[in-house]
Design brief:
- The chain is of the alpha/beta class.
- The chain has 2 domains: 193 residues, no CATH class; 104 residues, Udp-n-acetylmuramoylalanyl-d-glutamate--2,6- Diaminopimelate Ligase, Chain: A, domain 1 (3-Layer(aba) Sandwich), CATH 3.40.1390.30.
- 51% of the residues lie in helices and 11% in strands.
- The strands form 2 sheets. A 5-stranded mixed beta sheet has the order 1-4-3-2-9, sandwiched between helices. The protein has a 4-stranded mixed beta sheet with strand order 5-8-7-6.
- α14 links the parallel β7 and β8.
- The structure holds zinc ion.
- Zinc ion (ZN) binds next to α15.
């Protein structure tokens, strides 16, 4: 399989597992196409053509032509210059590495992270939050994220990849879709009664069990073991944390428990104020689960060696 085949398959699978549903995403892509056709030639020059077939602005080929044959890849959660140099050193020691796969984006996909946050509004509306409230809060928050990201030195990893000629891909929301839909289906199906039951379900998943062995396992952050879990919202995809003002609307829309990857202090206080139970499954463990589910589908019958790095652990299903 070559680099383009790997990337295209990853996006295809991510669309299939998008919490908004495949049909919705395909309609969005058609809308994007119409938007593109209306642009002036000058605007078209700057347009991200990948966005016509890939709705996840934080998941892209960062460096590479596409025709590179991939039979071994090094995957990591955070990839920067250090990891690219590590890949090169391993190559010099005789390990085959045809590409580096990052979960968290860098370069252009990181600069465009805020764009993918729009999908949060649609996911919230599926949870019962009025779409006008969801869109308004998400828009304010995504602009904040955009401003925060703007000053970064985005191209460090890409420059390292270019100088050492190692293809580099990031699959962020593409992988987060996998973990979000996997866990949401699991909870919808098993309907855990209490928060302890939610933890038990998570602990049956190898990625969380492995994290727990290293004291990074799932935790009840707000609530207690015996509390009822009620309606569960798996909040794990759409770029980065959404608005801290969403908890009031989530409460009134009937969400009782949020299962997330991580939560900051401001969000935690707001969730507590609105009596919403919060379970933190774990950040890197959830990232790992998403990446593993995606790799299972993308690699399927292809014999591709996956070298673990930067917090990534491969668990096959
Ligand atoms: Zn992450």
């Amino acid at each position: 399989m070559n680099l383009s085949e790997f990337y295209n398959k990853a996006i295809e699978v991510a669309i299939e597992k998008d919490p908004r549903g495949k049909d919705y995403v395909m309609d969005e892509l058609k809308r994007k196409q119409r938007e593109y056709e209306r642009l002036t030639d000058r605007e078209k020059e700057l347009f991200d053509l990948d966005s016509l077939s890939n709705p996840y602005s934080d998941s892209r080929i960062i460096y590479g032509k596409g025709d590179e044959e991939i039979s071994a890849l090094m995957a990591g959660i955070d990839i920067d210059t250090g990891e690219i140099v590590l890949a090169e050193m391993l190559r010099q020691r005789g390990r085959r590495i045809d590409m580096v796969l990052a979960h968290h984006p860098s370069g252009k996909p990181f600069a465009n992270l805020a764009a993918v946050m729009n999908m949060q509004a649609d996911i919230l509306s599926l949870m019962g939050v009025p779409i006008n409230v969801a869109e308004s809060l998400t828009e304010t928050r995504s602009k904040e994220v955009e401003r925060k990201i703007m000053p970064a030195n985005h191209d460090r990893a890409r420059d390292a990849a270019r100088l050492l000629n190692i293809p580099l891909v990031s699959l962020h929301t593409a992988a987060d879709n996998m973990v979000a839909s996997y866990l949401q289906c699991l909870f919808d199906e098993h309907k855990p009664l209490t928060l302890e039951d939610v933890i038990d379900i998570l602990m049956d998943i190898p990625e969380y069990k492995d994290a727990a062995k290293n004291s990074m396992g799932p935790k009840i952050l707000i609530g207690s073991k015996g509390r009822k879990s009620g309606k569960i919202f798996v909040d794990m995809t759409g770029g980065t944390s959404g608005s801290k003002d969403i908890y009031d609307s989530l409460r009134t829309s009937g969400v009782n428990t949020i299962v997330g990857m991580h939560i900051n202090e401001d969000h935690r206080k707001e969730a507590e104020k609105h009596h919403i139970n919060v379970i933190i499954a774990g950040h890197i463990s959830s990232d790992n689960l998403g990446m593993n589910l995606l790799l299972d589908r993308v690699l399927e019958d292809n014999v591709v060696e996956v070298i673990e790095s930067s917090g990534f652990r491969r668990f096959k299903r």
